[in-house]
Design a protein that fits this description.
The chain is built from 3 helices and 2 strands; from the N terminus they run H-E-E-H-H. It has 108 residues and is α+β, with helices and mostly antiparallel strands. A two-stranded antiparallel sheet has the order 1-2.
Length: 108
């Protein structure tokens, strides 16, 4: 079967490449999406969009444990110490944070 899209890219000195626009569009790829490379016995490589794996199993297990522990031991919950709150506020004064902004690659 002939290829519907044929494209080339070049590896950088750090073995990185840019996925060509036609391939990005065909796979409906966006920034930070993951790719899966399947090397076949004949040497051909199949490039597909990797399945979304937004959940980290270790983090999920920890958050479940934490929620369960908090529910079972309400007596252990306590408010934030006012002195600590003041210290946090002093240290973060004037720092603007947009919780909806995507992280930069270096921040992840």
């Amino acid at each position: 079967m002939p290829a519907l899209i044929a494209a080339e890219s070049t590896l950088t000195d750090r073995y990185q490449t840019t996925v060509p626009d036609a391939v990005r569009k065909a796979l409906n790829l966006g920034k930070r999406d993951k790719l899966r490379y399947t090397v076949q016995p004949d040497g051909h490589v199949l490039l597909t969009r990797a399945a979304d794996t937004d959940t980290d199993p270790a983090l999920g297990a920890f958050l479940s444990f934490l929620a369960s522990d908090m529910t079972q031991h309400l007596e252990r919950l306590q408010g934030l110490d006012p002195a600590l709150l003041q210290r946090v506020q002093a240290l973060t004064a004037g720092v603007a944070v947009d919780l909806d902004a995507p992280l930069l690659a270096d921040d992840e």
